[in-house]
Amino acid sequence: MSTMDEVVDGWLKHRLVVQELLELVDDEQAQFKPWEDAKSLGDLAVHIATSMDMFVKTVKNGEFTPPQEESNYETMRDVREILKKYTETTKQDLKSLSKSQLTDEVEFNKDIAPGSFWLSNAIDHEIHHKGQLFTYARIAGVKAVPFFMKHPSELK
After folding, report:
1. Are 15 and 7 in contact (CB under 8 A)?
2. What is the mean pLDDT of residues 101-129?
3. Does the predicted model carry a pTM greater than 0.70?
4. How far apart are CA 128 and CA 48, in angstroms?
5. 37-56 per-position pLDDT tens digit
6. What is the DSSP string of the chain?
7. Beta-carbon neighbour count of residue 25 at 10 Å?
């Protein structure tokens, strides 16, 4: 894995687009589900935030750290605030990781791998759900979605 600043920047170029996309979603679209048992658009956005936080805290703590449940939102503004809060916390946690935390083995879901593996997995997980979120938003009626990632110059 590269330097932590590069990891943070690589993650942020995706997370900031999620935040931008959610600015285009209104309250009526927050409960949109493409099928009956799916997460709602709002729930999926919160899942993105809490999952990344869970992965990073697991690496930081050296053991599985369950995600905090954040399903108490009423509006898209609430969802955006949850995502913003987790983005800042996760960013600081990522920057605080030591080289040993990245190389130490961590058990997660009965699998054992170095912390760097779990961080890479976390970013892939977020990108997967970001794609779903884009699809949800388009089906729910958002006409113009942002480009799928931020240019590195937009991260500073």
Report:
1. no
2. 95
3. yes
4. 10
5. 999 999 999 999 999 999 99
6. ---HHHHHHHHHHHHHHHHHHHTT--GGGGG--SSTTSPPHHHHHHHHHHHHHHHHHHHHHTS--PPPP-----SHHHHHHHHHHHHHHHHHHHHH--HHHHHSEEEETTEEEEHHHHHHHHHHHHHHHHHHHHHHHHHHT--SPPPSS--GGG--
7. 22
